[in-house]
Amino acid sequence: FVLLWIALTSIHRIGPQEEGVILRFGKYAGKLSSGIGLTLPAPIDKVMKVDVREIKTIEIPKGQGENLILTSDQNIVDLDYSVRWSRRNAELYLFQMVDPEETIGEVAESAMREVVSTVSLNDTIGSGRGEIETRVQQRMQQLLDYYRTGVSIQGVAIQRADPPAQVNDAFKRVTAAQ
């Protein structure tokens, strides 16, 4: 029975997209790369598997809602966008953030507001979207690296950029008249 227990709790299979994080008495003790790894038997060592290649997406705003942001020319734009991210460092990802998705969402909103506040409404709803997406991605990565989150931002995509619903009809009439 003891030999079976040692064999079952000491040998770990880590998938090709995973990293294994070894916890010795609940404290970080090392990593296991993909393949077969050996550790001390449970309850001394515990292995947590983290998929480091999976790309996740966060939609902002969540559900049906408005995400109003002020532009540099004092106009308001309603933006819907998504952020694609993945785990880069399993140790940091597991132990530096309490709620990773919430943290990434807050950083995304902060970075988007920072970047959009420096561009005009016309750039935000028109040809400047690509530059905004790139700048937001870079700023998010800077902040998340500073926070030591172990997360990599794969991309930011603006799905919708419109004036607020209350003035959208008037804005379309002004644009058509111009």
Percent in strands: 25-35%
The portion of residues assigned to helices is 25-40%
Low-confidence stretches: none
Give the biggest beta sheet. 4 strands, antiparallel
Which structural class do you get from the secondary structure elements?
A: alpha+beta
- Work out the helix count: 6
Order of helices and strands: HEEEEEEEEHHHHEH
Descriptive keywords:
178 residues; 6 helices; alpha+beta; single chain; 3-stranded antiparallel β-sheet; 37% helix
Account of the protein in words:
By secondary structure, the protein is an alpha+beta fold. It has six helices and nine strands, in the order αββββββββααααβα. The protein has helices spanning 2-10, 90-96, 100-116, 121-125, 129-146, 168-177, and strands spanning 11-14, 18-24, 27-32, 35-38, 45-51, 55-60, 68-70, 76-87, 151-162. Strands 6, 7, 8 and 9 form a four-stranded antiparallel β-sheet that branches. Helix 3 crosses helix 5 (129-146). The chain is rod-shaped. The protein starts with a helix and ends with a helix.
